[in-house]
């Protein structure tokens, strides 16, 4: 069983590839949280996987929330693993993940990271199309190797003290941030409602045909801004001149 969270498709691609290889079912963490579905039975022969992007070298808030409430029953000796997608590295996200998984009565055996195109528009522009293609091709090869390691139930690599220091310095900015007040829709909005439909925080409502952010904070997945078909959603002024990125798995 593979639990995944995705904003623009990178982690869904990773989860899908491993799921196809191992014959494991996928559970969308965002939908599980919205439906308050936290209890799952693990059968003999199943593995337990967690696939999600790193945010500020830590866990997305919705992933941490889900893991805090997660109840796993059944095969306690199941091989437990994670793939964390990132732009460059995952910091010490694996350390928090391990503690939360242990709370369920399971032990995390391996953590793998895969670099994929970055989508964090408030800070970075997205890679050009050619670079995106190259990054995704490399990620595909890495996922093939990781799928072999997971199938063999290999041990993964853990972060060290230096990564822990980096995460301790950066992750509080995510916890205190995630403000929605800078999101807005321009007149290019076509009133399709996709932003509200894909928001894992249910922080967007459509009023008079345009999105309105009705919660003070959100997951900050950038799904709304990247998946808007008209590129009408902005976050402050910086994103006006930046591109958009959606993994081909969501096309």
Please provide a written account of the structure:
This protein has two domains: 2-166, Rossmann fold (3-Layer(aba) Sandwich), CATH 3.40.50; 179-240, 2-Layer Sandwich (Alpha-Beta Plaits), CATH 3.30.70. It is 35% helix and 19% strand. It has helices at residues 10-22, 29-34, 61-69, 93-103, 129-151, 161-176, 194-198, 223-227, and strands spanning 2-4, 26-28, 39-42, 48-53, 71-74, 80-86, 110-115, 183-185, 204-207, 210-213, 233-235. Helix 4 links the parallel strand 6 (80-86) and strand 7. The model has no long low-confidence stretch (mean pLDDT 95).
Topology (SSEs and partners):
Elements: E1 2-4, H1 10-22, E2 26-28, H2 29-34, E3 39-42, E4 48-53, H3 61-69, E5 71-74, E6 80-86, H4 93-103, E7 110-115, H5 129-151, H6 161-176, E8 183-185, H7 194-198, E9 204-207, E10 210-213, H8 223-227, E11 233-235
Parallel strand pairs: 1-2, 1-4, 3-5, 4-6, 6-7
Antiparallel strand pairs: 8-11, 9-10
Helix pairs in contact: 1-5
Quick description:
The chain has 251 residues and is α/β, with parallel strands linked by helices. It is built from eight helices and eleven strands. It has a five-stranded parallel beta sheet. Strands 3-5 form a two-stranded parallel sheet. It has a two-stranded antiparallel ribbon with strand order 8-11.
């Amino acid at each position: 069983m593979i639990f995944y969270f995705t904003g623009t498709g990178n982690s869904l691609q990773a989860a899908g590839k491993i799921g196809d290889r191992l014959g494991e079912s996928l559970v969308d963490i965002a939908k599980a949280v919205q439906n308050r579905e936290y209890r799952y039975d693990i059968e003999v022969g199943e593995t337990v996987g967690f696939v999600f992007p790193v945010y500020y070298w830590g866990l997305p808030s919705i992933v941490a929330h889900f893991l805090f409430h997660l109840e796993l029953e059944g095969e306690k000796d199941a091989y437990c693993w994670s793939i964390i997608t990132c732009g460059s590295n995952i910091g010490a996200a694996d350390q928090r993940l391990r503690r939360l998984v242990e709370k369920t009565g399971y032990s995390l055996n391996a953590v793998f990271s895969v670099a994929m195109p970055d989508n964090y528009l408030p800070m970075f522009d997205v890679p050009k199309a050619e670079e995106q293609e190259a990054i995704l091709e490399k990620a595909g090869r890495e996922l093939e190797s990781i799928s072999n390691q997971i199938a063999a139930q290999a041990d993964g690599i853990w972060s060290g003290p230096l990564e822990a220091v980096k995460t301790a310095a950066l992750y509080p900015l995510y916890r205190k941030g995630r403000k929605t007040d800078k999101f807005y829709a321009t007149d290019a909005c076509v009133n399709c409602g996709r932003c509200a439909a894909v928001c894992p925080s249910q922080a967007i409502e459509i009023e008079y045909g345009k999105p309105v952010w009705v919660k003070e904070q959100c997951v900050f997945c950038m799904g709304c801004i990247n998946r808007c078909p008209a590129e009408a959603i902005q976050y402050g002024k910086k994103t006006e001149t930046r591109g958009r990125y959606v993994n081909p798995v969501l096309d």
